[in-house]
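Exercise 7. Predict the structure of Imidazolonepropionase from Novilysobacter avium.
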Amino acid sequence: MTISAETKDLRATKPAASDAPGTAGERWDGLILGASLATLDCADGYGEVRNAALGWRDGLITYVGPRDGLPDKPEALAHDVITTDGWITPGLVDCHTHLVFAGDRAREFELRLQGASYEEIARAGGGILSTVEAVRACDEDELLRQSLPRARALLADGATTLEMKSGYGLDFEGERRMLRVARRIGEELGIGVRTTYLAAHALPAEYREQADAYIEEVVQWLPRLHAEGLVDAVDAFCEGIGFTPAQTRRVFQAARALDLPVKLHADQLSDLSGAALVAEFGGLSADHVEHTSEESVRAMAAAGVVAVLLPGAFHVLRETRVPPLASFREHGVAMAIATDCNPGTSPLLSLRQALQLACTHFRLTPQEGLRGATVNAARALGLDDRGALRVGMRADFVRWKIRHPAELGYWLGGDLAGGVWIGGQRVHHR
Ligand code: NIG
Ligand code: FE
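Solution. The predicted structure, encoded as tokens:
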């Protein structure tokens, strides 16, 4: 995948609005005809429109609906008219990734297959801390060089917005470098990027036995990084091998003091009531949530916290405890799905694949899965300008070479994304 010549051509050949006779300034930049749409612009279902049309201008959607409902002849409406088949969905939103990192942990994977647990490896100084070592050894350009292909792979399979966390620097410069690389990936690929400050991811070796002192550092770094425009949200790893609820609370207070939204790696390996803590702080999402209690689910529902399911980590860690889906459904907690792309627990480079894993392991319906990777994922990032196909929303969408949207939760692998548009620009084409 490249930011294709296509995109540049589109930009280069698009006449300036004033060149278009008659309707100067009014014509849309693009119009797609004939495909079916899954708009997701509905409380339930796919929001299907058959033999549809989708128009956009200046990066925003101008028309969504049946082809025969267009207000004029296609050529009169848009500069670029494309007739095609397949299905168009909103661009996928990957609302939880750690894709900025260096090296890999394939050797650790081998050890786990031989019986070592994720916790044992972490407690022995491996796991997250081994990636910290690799990241600290990289300058910004090298970190970008290693991370970009992962973002490209996600984009090529339909992701148009990526959340990226820090959390492998665990010192001021390292965290800053990771967040800067996340922003640079956005500039390089034209993809939507949301950054999350996750310095409370693991305790760095130099703070052994001094977790509270480390958390105080984390709290001090935050306003400095925020002042550089590097932080959109704040996260922590609240877990026996991570940080306590009290330490997490301290980080959340620092975030709220800056008006930054919070989210959490919550209740992944044990129930520390992490999801309820997010609810208490009016946060965006509780992520993982395998061990979340009924009481916490109620708190999430009351506070509108999204449950972010991460089936890649569940799969790779060979977990057996499934998140409380029935309870989420019963209480009306919105569910999102993300890759959790990271070198330890989820070396997963396709959000569509995460959708498949969520259907297989958690019995999500493909419809819930697609909602989870679009409209609910946007909500988990606090974004209301994307995640559905609606007039006025960002023209982020994907044309899939499929006969029905359920195929997005069905195929393992394959080459389904025929075209990916971000802000009305085609950035990927097969
Ligand atoms: O979401 N649980 C903590 N964080 C990551 C794993 C990071 C790693 O192992 O490098 C997760 O699973
Ligand atoms: Fe994670």
